[in-house]
Design a protein that fits this description.
It contains 16 helices and no strands. With 408 residues, the protein is an all-alpha fold. The protein starts with 6 loop residues before the first helix and ends in an 18-residue tail after the last helix.
Length: 408
C-alpha cells in the first residue's frame, strides 16, 4: 500500500475508479438499445443513429491521447471531473435531441467525455494507488468491479424503455453520468501519490522513448487487432444470428452474457499477471480468442452454442485491461502512464473502426460474413504469436526511462 495516503483514501481511489469503469462501460454498451425508439420518435434512419455512435467512437479514439497527456500534466481529478461534466452535457443534448444533428453533437461530446472517464485514467489511478507487488491483482479487481455495470445498466435501461418514453431512460443516463463527479473526485486523490519512474525527463521524451521501445510498440499493434475483433463482434453478431435464422433477442442476450463474464476474466487475468509474464499471458489471450472464434463459427449457431461462445468471450474480453495497464506501468512507471495508455488505446480504437466498417464492407461485397470471420481468426492468432515472441523485454535495451523492465 502506498504510504502517502491512508488506507481509507486508497480505498476511495479504488472505489472511484471502479465506479467510473462500471458506469462508463454500462452506458456505452446500452446505447444500442435506444436505436428503435429514437429512430421511430425522431423520424431519423438507423444510419443516422449509428453515425452518431460512430462519431462518438472516432472522437474518443482521437481525443484519448491528448486528454491523457492533460491528465498527466494537470492531474487526474480535474480531468476526470471535467469529463463527467461533459458527459452530463452530451447526454442532456441527447435527451432534447430533435434530429440527426443533435444526435451527432451528443456523440461528439460523449466521445470526449469517454476519453476523460473511461479505462485509461481509471487504470492509471488504480496503478498509482497500490504497490508494484499488488498492482496486477488490484487492476483485475477494479476491472472486474467495473464490469458489473455492463450487466446491470443494460437491464435497467431496457426496463425503462419498455414502460416509458426513451427520454426517461436517457435521463437515467444523465443521473449515472452525474454520479461520475464524486467518483472522479475520489479516484483523483491518486494525484497526491508520488509518481514512479520517468524521473528527470519530459513528456515528449517519454513518448519518444516509448515509440522506440519494441515491447510497447508490439503491445500497441496487438491492441489494434484486439479492437478489430471485439468491435466487429458486438457490431455484427446480431445481424449474423438473424441471417442464420436465430431470434434477434439472442444477440442482445449474448452481449449481456459477455458483460456478465467480464468480471471473472478480469479477476483471473489480474491474479495470473502477478505471477507470470504479462506479455505471454496477453498473447495467449489473443490466441484463445482465435480458437473460440473458430470453434463457434465452424458450426451452425444455436442458442446454446451462442451463449457458451458469449461466456467464453466474456472471460477473454476485459481481461486485457489489467494486463495492458500492468505492462505499461512495468515498462515505464506511473508518471506518464495515462499518456502512454492513451496512445496505445488510439491503436485499439483504430482497430475498432476497421472491425465495424470492414465487416460491413465484406458483407456488402460477398453477401456473407464468412471471409470476415476467417480474417479475424488469422489476424487474432498472428497478433497473439507476435505478442508472445516479440513483446517481452528487449534483449539489448538501449537507454530506458525506468531502472528495469519488470517481468512479473
Amino acid at each position: 500500500m502506498n504510504a502517502s495516503l491512508s488506507p481509507r483514501q486508497i480505498g476511495l481511489i479504488l472505489i472511484g475508479a471502479a465506479v467510473l469503469l462500471g458506469l462508463g462501460m454500462g452506458m456505452r454498451r446500452s446505447l444500442g438499445l435506444f436505436l428503435s425508439p429514437v429512430t421511430l420518435d425522431l423520424a431519423v434512419t438507423a444510419a443516422d443513429f449509428t453515425l452518431a455512435i460512430a462519431i462518438q467512437n472516432i472522437v474518443w479514439g482521437i481525443s484519448q491521447a491528448p486528454v491523457s497527456a492533460l491528465a498527466d500534466r494537470f492531474g487526474l481529478r480535474v480531468t476526470i471531473m471535467a469529463g463527467a461534466a461533459i458527459y452530463v452535457l452530451g447526454l442532456g443534448v441527447f435527451v432534447v435531441a430533435g434530429g440527426a444533428g443533435a444526435l451527432n453533437l451528443s456523440g461528439a461530446l460523449i466521445g470526449v467525455a469517454l476519453s476523460c472517464t473511461a479505462s485509461s485514467l481509471g487504470m492509471t489511478a488504480t496503478a498509482r494507488a497500490v504497490s508494484e507487488r499488488r498492482r496486477s491483482m488490484t487492476l483485475g479487481i477494479v476491472a472486474a468491479a467495473g464490469s458489473i455495470g455492463a450487466l446491470i445498466v443494460p437491464l435497467a435501461t431496457q426496463a425503462l424503455l419498455a414502460d416509458y418514453p426513451w427520454q426517461i431512460a436517457a435521463l437515467f443516463f444523465v443521473v449515472l453520468a452525474a454520479a461520475m463527479l464524486p467518483a472522479g473526485y475520489w479516484a483523483g486523490a491518486a494525484d497526491h501519490i508520488p509518481k514512479q519512474g520517468n524521473a528527470g525527463i519530459s513528456m515528449r521524451e517519454a513518448i519518444g522513448q516509448a515509440a522506440r521501445h519494441r515491447p510497447f510498440v508490439v503491445m500497441s499493434c496487438a491492441y489494434f487487432v484486439c479492437g478489430l475483433n471485439l468491435i466487429f463482434l458486438t457490431t455484427h453478431l446480431p445481424a449474423y444470428l438473424a441471417i442464420c435464422g436465430q431470434s434477434p433477442m439472442l444477440g442482445a442476450v449474448a452481449i449481456a452474457v459477455i458483460g456478465g463474464m467480464n468480471g471473472i476474466g478480469s479477476l483471473t487475468a489480474g491474479w495470473l499477471g502477478g505471477r507470470y509474464p504479462k506479455h505471454i499471458l496477453l498473447g495467449l489471450l489473443y490466441i484463445l480468442r482465435a480458437f473460440v472464434f473458430t470453434a463457434y463459427f465452424a458450426l451452425p449457431p444455436t442458442p446454446t452454442t451462442t451463449l457458451v461462445f458469449a461466456a467464453a468471450m466474456g472471460m477473454l474480453w476485459l481481461s486485457v485491461a489489467p494486463l495492458i495497464g500492468g505492462l505499461v506501468a512495468d515498462m515505464f512507471g506511473t508518471r506518464y502512464m495515462a499518456t502512454l495508455l492513451g496512445i496505445a488505446f488510439v491503436m485499439h480504437q483504430a482497430g475498432s473502426a476497421l472491425g465495424a466498417w470492414g465487416g460491413g464492407l465484406i458483407f456488402d461485397a460477398t453477401g456473407s460474413y464468412d471471409d470476415a470471420w476467417k480474417i479475424g481468426v488469422v489476424v487474432g492468432f498472428t497478433a497473439g504469436v507476435i505478442q508472445i515472441v516479440a513483446g517481452g523485454p528487449s534483449r539489448r535495451p538501449g537507454p530506458t526511462i525506468v531502472p528495469r523492465f519488470a517481468t512479473t
